[in-house]
């Protein structure tokens, strides 16, 4: 994963981004839940995961509450809110805030499936009708 930067001042490294993705997928989690999920793809110490999750909480990206002897963590922001902020900041930094060059870049960097192309067509049709789908 690449570094994610948002207008709120957070800059996520690859491990932080992976942890956030897992927390969004799972909801409320303990460190061990995330550690076990990460172990499927890499060797990583439990203490490393615990430290990174504590730092994400200190940055305000995760909330935590005591549950017995452990903490339960949740994302402080919905994925969509953080993604929107991150993408707006990325677009501003690299494309002067212009959306079309940013979208063109993204579309050119990955091979789309026929289903994804069809979804893009539906999105363009909605935009042409004045329905932004809440994406502005």
Automatic annotation (TrEMBL):
Family note:
Belongs to the BlaI transcriptional regulatory family.
Q: Which key words are in the record?
A: DNA-binding, Transcription, Transcription regulation
Q: What is this protein called?
A: BlaI family transcriptional regulator
| Gene Ontology annotations of biological process type | negative regulation of DNA-templated transcription
Query: Mind listing the GO molecular function terms for this protein?
Result: DNA binding
Is Transcription a UniProt keyword of this protein? yes
Q: Which SUPFAM superfamilies match?
A: Winged helix' DNA-binding domain (SSF46785)
Query: Which InterPro entries does this entry report, sorted A to Z?
Result: BlaI_family, WH-like_DNA-bd_sf, WH_DNA-bd_sf
Where along the sequence do coiled-coil regions lie?
A: none
């Amino acid at each position: 994963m690449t570094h994610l930067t948002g207008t709120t001042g957070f800059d996520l490294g690859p491990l932080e981004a992976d942890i956030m993705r897992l927390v969004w997928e799972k909801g409320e989690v303990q460190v061990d839940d995330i550690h076990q999920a990460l172990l499927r793809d890499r060797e990583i110490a439990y203490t490393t995961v615990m430290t990174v999750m504590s730092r994400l909480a200190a940055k305000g990206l995760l909330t935590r509450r005591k549950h017995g002897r452990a903490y339960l963590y949740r994302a402080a922001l919905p994925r969509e809110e953080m993604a929107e902020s991150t993408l707006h900041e990325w677009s501003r930094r690299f494309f002067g805030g212009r959306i079309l060059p940013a979208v063109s870049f993204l579309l050119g960097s990955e091979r789309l499936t026929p289903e994804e192309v069809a979804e893009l067509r539906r999105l363009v049709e909605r935009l042409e009708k004045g329905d932004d789908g809440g994406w502005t």
